[in-house]
Amino acid sequence: MDSKQQIKQAVQVSKLYYLDGVTQAEIGKKLNLSRPTISRLLQFAREKNIVKISINDPLSNIEDLQHQLKEKYQLKDVIISTPESNETAEILSSLGKATARYLDKKVKDNDVIGVSWGRTLVSVARQLIPNDRKNVQVVYLKGTVANSTHNNYVVEVTKCFNKCYHTQAQILPLPLIFENKQIKEMVIKDKFINEILDTGKRTSVALFTVETTEQDATLFELGYFNDQQIKTLQEKAAGDLVSRFIDERGKIVDDQLNDRTVAIALDDLKQARESVLIAGGMNKLKAIKAALAGKYANVLVTDSLVAQHLL
Fold it and tell me: What CATH code would you report for 4-47?
């Protein structure tokens, strides 16, 4: 006879994996269980009908889902990827492929492509489709210098975009966040830096993602905040958009921090012809909703599970 403890664990693991989209690795950390144990519990849940799996072909209703999302969030385009699993690596790869195909259709001669960095953007960069567009510029929409050894993928993103669009990306060689507003204002007056910032404001196609306020969020790992500052941001913010922290309505949560941040102004994102938010995974749902509430994107690239929850 199956123990109550085994059933309880199987239910707990199944809810996290199937309903919340948490990966097996993340469940292992959360519940202090090994990967083999989690796999056995998931298998047990299926065998005992704790979990019943049915297959709904996402391609059969994908167009309807896209239409509903465009209507609800007033978007001009929605691209929905269909990853084979809810593992983070698979979701990122799927988003990267979908975005790369979209860019192949939308980027025109003489466009300015605004990019950021991180795992989502490097997934896009690795999937870019070689093309013969002419006079395309690539510019970073935020500072690129990290305060730690944590990889922000700037080098790889830059290399891939340079190769694809036969150009030399304009990098903002600055910390993402300065110690105070006065230092930042002084630095960005530099002619070279100011020209890069002006190019960013002329972006035709802006590519960006959102980050969570979870403890392992990239921005927190880069060393810009102490523990108390992280705790405050976790209480106030739904996530960050081009490293500017926003609440559930899409409003900036800390004006002083915002003044010290080197990144495109959120209102300037709205001016791009294609303002493309690329984000997936259920852990980012709250941040995605916040960005859409602020109407900073007119194009959304996400995965099918998040797309359904956005409705």
Answer: 1.10.10
